[in-house]
Design a protein that fits this description.
Layout (H helix, E strand, L loop, with lengths): L24 H5 L15 H14 L3 E5 L2 H12 L6 E5 L3 H4 L4 H4 L4 E5 L9 H5 L15 E7 L9 H13 L3 E6 L2 H8 L3 H5 L4 E5 L10 E5 L1 H13 L8 H14 L3 H17 L12 E3 L2 H4 L3 H10 L8 E3 L6 H20 L15
Parallel strand pairs: 2-3, 2-4, 4-5, 5-6
Antiparallel strand pairs: 1-7, 6-7, 8-9
The structure holds pyridoxal-5'-phosphate and threonine.
Amino acid sequence: MDLSNFDKRPAHNDFRSDTFTTPTASMIKSLVISSLGDAVYNEDDSTNQLEAKVAKLAGKESGLYCVSGTLSNQIAVRVNLFQPPYSILCDYRGHIYADEAGGLSTLSQAMIQPIHPKNGKYLTLEDDIIPNVIPDDGDIHLAPTKLISLENTLHGMIFPIDEIEKISKFCRENEIRLHLDGARLWNAHVETGVSIEKYCSYFDSVSLCLSKSLGAPIGSVLVSDSKFIKKANHFKKQNGGGIRQSGILAVMASTAIDENLPLLKNSHVKAKELGKLCQDNNIPLLYPVDTNFVFVDFEKAGISDELFNKYGDKYNIKVHGNRISFHYQISDESFENVKRALLDTWEDAKKNPAERSNQPSKFYSL
Ligand SMILES: Cc1ncc(COP(=O)(O)O)c(C=O)c1O
Ligand SMILES: C[C@@H](O)[C@H](N)C(=O)O
């Protein structure tokens, strides 16, 4: 059977997101060893093996395969919480708040405290959490903070582990649960050398995406203790997330972990090189380039989405908004083209700056 189609890399020029990575020929070949049990009955060996593999990597008792990071985040939040009224404290840019369609209010019936970190990069205990946490002191006007959710990486930025440690200690001392949206924790791990297990040790629950930088076609694994995962599976089923023969997806995800984790570093090297090019040409950036994302400050640069898209078309690359995403399937040719597109955009914007918009650049649209 000719599988060369699966190595054509349709995402070779796609800088919109690392979610555009496509399955490789070896992932497709892995299908032949997939089990075909009904995972709702917990009878699919390949799914169980993936869940155990990721749980082991995370140093947690159990894992739960979910069809998306959104589902794994939302059911994790719900399982961490018990009796409303309660609040969830998170970064205002956090995916669970900004990009999961209000699920925190519907599934978890929670008040949200979307915090703007004072340092502009990540939440700190002293500056952002202690001043904003709502105490559970019996005041019937309040919805006490019962969950803090962090994201690592967030917009490609690595959350410093010493700060995670402080926040985790505070949470444990104040009966507040701690969740990590670890959609790109793999990227933080590859960049810092800190193990997935060490990162996860500070959290009650962690959602690990397989479909972003790692390149699996579908899915995430939620990890925690066994009692938590048992309840999470209940909420997964309640929300239509029960999957039948998920083994075919699980084997591809397992192959992605084995084959692609070592490739993440190269996407960081490219992203950092583009970040350096921006600095050398005075193109303003919104955030430091720690891993695989370059966020250009379109507002300060006078760049419009339309202008960048125009040069993206000229150089045959796919871009959207001010986030330039790198992943292991980006080709060297496309890397050269994104540099040309950004430099041409910048030269154009300097001559004809876009009118200031009060709308932040959206780095995706459906
Ligand atoms: C940080 C982060 N968390 C969670 C998700 C949700 O993952 P999914 O798109 O699979 O629902 C995404 C986006 O894909 C993300 O970027
Ligand atoms: C847009 C968002 O949902 C997706 N996680 C991304 O980073 O591309």
